[in-house]
Amino acid sequence: MKSWALPVALSLLAMPAAFAVADTAAWSWKLPPHVPEPRVPADNAMSAAKVELGRHLFYDTRLSGNGTLSCASCHHQERAFTDGRPLPVGSTGEFAHRNAPGLANSAWHATYNWANPALVSLEQQMEIPLFSDDPVEMGVNDANRAEVLDRLRREPIYPPLFRQSFPDEAEPLSMAAVIKAIAAFQRALVSADSRYDRYLQGKESFTASEERGMNLFFGEKVECHHCHGSFNFNDQVVHRKSRVVETLFHNTGLYDIDGQGSYPYPNRGVFESTARPEDMGAFRAPSLRNVEVTAPYMHDGSAASLEEVIEQYAQGGRVTASGPHRGDGRLNPYKSGLISKIDLSAQDKQDLLSFLKTLTDEAFLNDPKLSDPWRPRR
User: Fold this and answer.
1) Residues 120-142: pLDDT tens digits?
2) Of the candidates 329, 313, 311, 310, which has an alpha carbon nearest to the alpha carbon of residue 321?
3) Among the residues of 166-303, which ranges form H helices?
4) In angstroms, rounded to a whole number, what is the distance separating the alpha carbons of residues 318 and 263?
5) Residues 47-80: b if buried by 16+ CB within 10 A, e if exposed
6) Handedness of CA 54, 56, 62, 64 (dihedral sign)
7) For 203-216, b where at least 16 C-beta lie within 10 A, e where not — what string?
């Protein structure tokens, strides 16, 4: 199954100055029956031209303040748009505070980033890496914004593609349009062709170990499904027909550095925006789609492997024996009631791992329509 398709081939690199053929018809979602159509903002409708524009911008280092970093620098397709590091590095060499989240199926997220209830759209979220100064990521600011836009104007591909994507705008090439185009590309990052998806459609069978792992995952013994039970394997989901949207955040017992529930600064979860003690260490449950390739794990990249993650949940939290984060997260007073010690055998753990690997979508990880369009010119 192809997640999305451009109805007309875009010969961008061959004849950039003459480019004017992208399809601007209404977007058509290509989804299996168990995946509902996502909600799209009325002021940023999908189109093939806009998605292609967003793809070029996503991979373009000229979009950063100093011209060294693209969105894709921290979001690699083969890693389901994560970067394989505990913490990403911004354009000026500063480390981000949190692990780079995967972007697959972000069209269906109710909130964005790890612990910000106020970020409820991809357009809002895009402003963070572009403009943040603590830490600097893309490094765009008032002093260099005009220069960044001028770089884009000088690229022959961009002016016609901006005009096609935003035909009603007097000045189509703007920072607001950049944000909307990248958000459109991110909405097109649909991952719904894993072995699990094909299993649901009767096109694939599971091994005995995968079947046992699935039953554990969705059963009441392990209870993974309480936070990862939706079609997107998370618990913050919004789609076109959603009426009630829950925005849940969870303390999973990673830390307890003072014996009173504290998490390491500045990664203290929703507490950073609410200052409520009960929000200490509360983070969004990420989607587990393609989780096999998105190591390291957790909001701070502190779990190196899936085996480590499974063991942590089996123990009902993490014990940090030494160092500045020393403490017993299992005893954190704000830990979710869903997190408690689970009696898992070695076979149980292997079965869970086997099931999680069925969520890998090889077509998504290798889809040329999601890849770097600038690569032939580099």
Assistant:
1) 999 999 999 999 999 999 999 99
2) 329
3) 175-187, 195-200, 208-218, 225-228, 271-274
4) 12
5) bbbbbbbbbbbbbbbbbbbebebbbbbbbbbebb
6) positive
7) eeebeebbebbbeb
Q: Which two tokens stand for residue 35?
A: 């995946």
d(CA 162, CA 166): 6
Residue 207 structure tokens: 């091994």
End-to-end CA distance of the chain: 30
pTM above 0.85, yes or no: yes
Cα(349)–Cα(346) distance, integer angstroms: 5
Contacts of 127 (CB under 8 A, 6+ apart): 179
What is the pLDDT of the chain when averaged over all its residues? Answer: 93
Helix ranges, 194-294 (H): 195-200, 208-218, 225-228, 271-274
Token reading at 347: 């076979």
SS3 of 229-244: CCCCCCCCECCCCCCC
Q: Write the CA distances from 78 to 83, 294, 367, integer angstroms.
A: 9, 9, 9
Percentages helix, strand, coil for the chain (3-state, rounded to 5) are 35, 5, 60
